[in-house]
Amino acid sequence: MRRKYAILGDVDWVLIGLYLILVSLGLSNIYAAVYDVEHPMIFSLSTEYGKQFMWIGISLFFGLSILLLDGSFIKKNAYWVYGFTMLLLLLVLFTSPINGARSWFGIGSVGIQPSEFAKIGISLALAKYIAEMGSQFKEFKSKFRIGLILGIPSILVLLQPDAGTFIIFVSFVLVLYREGLSGNIILFGIVAVIVAVITLIVADNTFFIPFTKIKVTGKFGIFLFITLLGLVSIFMVKNYVIPRNRKSLYRVIIGGFLISIVFVNFVEVGYTNILQSHQKERIDLLLGKIVDPDGKGYNINRSKAAIGSGGFMGNGFMQAKLANANQRHVPMQSTDFIFCTWSEERGFLGASLLIGLYIGLMMKIITVAERQRSRFTRIYAYCVLGIFFFHMLINIGMAIGLAPVIGIPLPFFSYGGSSMMSFTVLLFTLIKLDAERKNVLQ
Amino acid sequence: MNNFDNRKFVITFLILLIGSVFIFRLAYMQLIDDQWKLRAAEISENKLVTYPARGIVYDRNDKILIDNQVFYNLLVIPRETEGVDSVEFAKLLNIPIEDYTTRMNKARKYSKRKSSIFEKQISPKDYTQIGPELYKYPGFIEEERTLRTYPKPIGAQMLGYMNEVNKSDIQKDGYYKSGDYIGRSGIEKEYESVLRGKRGVRYILQNAIGVFTGSFENGKFDTVAIQGKNIQLGIDAELQAYGERLMQNKIGCIVAIEPSSGEILSLVTSPTYDPNLLVGRNLGNNYMDLYKDSLKPLFNRASMSTYPPGSTFKLMMALIGLQEGVVTSNSSFPCTKSLVGCHNHPTAQTISDGVKMSCNPYFYHLTKKIIQQNKSPNGYIDAGIGLDIWQDYVQSFGMGKTLPTDLNGVSRGLIPGKSYYDRIYGEHRWMFSTIFSISIGQGEVLVNPIEMANLAAIMANRGYYYPPHFIKNIENDTIASIFQKKHKTKVDAENFSYVVDGMYRVVNEAGGTARRARLDSIAICGKTGTAQNPHGEDHSIFIAFAPKDDPKIAISVYIENAGFGGTWAAPIASLMIEKYLTNAISPSSIKREKRILEANLILGK
Fold first, then answer.
1. What ipTM is given for this predicted complex?
2. Which residues of A are less than 8 Å from B16 in CB distance?
3. How far is CA A43 from the centre of its chain?
4. Closest Cβ–Cβ partner in A312, A325, A352 for B23
5. What does DSSP say about strands B471-474 and B464-465: parallel, antiparallel, or unpaired?
6. Looking at residue B55, what DSSP letter applies?
7. Which of B54, B49, B45, B99 minimizes the C-alpha distance to B77?
8. In the CATH hierarchy, which top-level class contains the domain B70-146?
9. A281, A334, B82, B501: most buried, per Cβ within 10 A?
10. Chain A partners of B15 at a C-beta cutoff of 8 Å?
């Protein structure tokens, strides 16, 4: 049964409002970051703000077009969109590399980054698959297929190579968690991150095994610690747990022990042998193992200096000393490090406001997701949430020195056509699906 | 619908958590931690640096030893040099055009935006031609700095030199920035932190198009340049210059000390060089030339070398013998030449005679009584006990232990004790007859020329000394208290009178070993030394103080391979004393002076 309704009737105006605010603040910020005295007009196409202005126009056109579509049409074609974006990801591997990665299709003077659009395809496909599989998350077949939906694009972006986008794909774990994947996965993830960080910190160190003269690398220290922990746990179980529960706990301890050993080895080998030297450097910088403010740590040091110098009120619009268009002390200040210009010019006040806006947007998306009767729309909403969340987490985290340097855009703020379009389409698809929530009877 | 609805709270919590972590982090960076603001000011290089003038060094009579001279550096900001006529500019600087290109490339490699040095140390004379033309060449900026200059070419080694800081200096002390100068040796190094002052920095604000808009954070991070402190040394510039003149064409050194304060009046080392050679653009080349010189002019013999003290050492033997009570002032010993060689002289009837005639066998017998005191029936054990007593005494004269002084690189002498000879011969395998050479300042004994001058000062003071030092005054500050601390020897003052009497007779009585040092007007007390050494002719040594009562100067003179102590070292010491005390050379000493000035004692070296 279908009701006729006005096109914009049930549209969520809060989401649209937040979108418009973020986009306009973003545009003004790019204007300040790359201001060109000879082209002061905001729609001068020879400048980045002129181009961004154009991209926003195109994005809005796409966004409004989506609102005109039928929600069921989107759902029906979810796999096709997925397939199309995967094809683009495959084809892009046959282009010639730009800056060492095959990530771009050049069309005239503009470039298209298919990995940005892949996020839309994955979100739709994942939503459709999980919505239709019922609640049999435990079946191997469904696990395998979900693995396939996520694994194919992951491998394709790693082949570019584009580690940043891969990390964004990890955000889909959040969706799976919401839909019933074991809660231990989050806990497991946190423990894994902690163990990994400790491993990385001690990986290059060597020490003597106590009371001996045998010199070993840092990871053996962790092994020693894990072994001791295991022995203590077994001792505790043996003495303080009732016999019938013991067996399963022993299994957990031994399993945990083996997994930890393998994991630490994996991290250590990956860090020393697989990571490229610049990636290793970025991790070392974050962990404070290298301090080199004018060399390897140049980007992050400049970024922090720009942000820190903003103070409470900031230096004012177009008044940045470091992240300004003329000095360009901060590298990539219109794309990856766009947060610097904003924070330097608007200060703590503006920076917290921006974070507040992103948090607000995400809270609103959760509200929207939870009011859906359609499982498809809810899952899709969480996909959008995860993507925005990870982009903000890594981009801002990097700028303020809490995450390693990974080049990914800040939604609606960073300069770039592909990301602007894909974020807009992601959000407007959600708005469209949400607008039709009352039509769904499920 | 399913049981997982509560998980939205976990996800919400996670997002809010990250959000608050970010906001707290931002609050810390932007509101609390000032380091990023300072770093930002540093990066944008919107700062004006003011360099303080380095402290001036004066002598004891307020004559300038080390002064400053202005020179100019030319800095370049590569980004702003568009349209500069490089050929014209190279001509102006008088450099080949290829140099212009390589220097520009080097500057560009460093930074296109920041200034770096293009041409160093342009003299004020050259700069009068360059300065007025500079406006035609955008991107080039002048920078006024100072260099050291020495009004009199004296005291090169003790005053030291300066050069540019290297990487390890910058790492050791965060104050230094590339291009700064640092004291490398001598006084410049010792008093670096006093002399250098502190540079000042003013952070300024510029807007996006480079226009000055005010001072950064209302001057919160600005610092005022603090001028380096002037210092005054105990050195007498005229005496120093005179000493260096006397030491021309000789190898060796003179150390003169004011006994009542320990202030060093002059520290002459020869051969020497003009300290102005190690200033400015030719520093590197000149340094290499001096470094390669076979006579080693860079080596400060007065402070860095150790020599056998020869017979000057006998003064201490006499004092120790008296103090230990193993001899009296009237003890007499035969001149037994079979024990140790000697020259022909009447038998020494008293300790004063022994000193006057410098009789070797006399001091052999005397020192044997110190070393072998029969404190143990076993002669070997007895020698060990005696030698340690002896060592203790000698060390109380400031020998064999590093003197607390403000001169870097002072070497210390060697005063052997029991353990030293045990290492050489084995425990209980030696006694006085094995080591008797120490009684006449030969054998293993080594002393530093400053220690020798200090011995003269101790004789002058009859039993105590102040550590020899250069510093006399620091502007608005006090000198280190260690230099005002009186060190007493283990010998009582009354025992000194017999030995000092001997020293007086050395110079002033017929049959004394240093008649050539005698002055009609001044009562000089001295002791010659003639040290055998493996490098050829004996070293000529003399230590002295004057006047006998109320002494004003104590001195040691050491001339390498020049022969008998009375022949060369004694007259030089005498001239120095006369110069210092009367500020002139009397007609009766002119002949003596002429003989010294004309002597060339490095022939064949």
1. 0.87
2. 359
3. 30
4. A352
5. unpaired
6. P
7. B45
8. alpha beta
9. A334
10. 359, 362-363, 366, 389
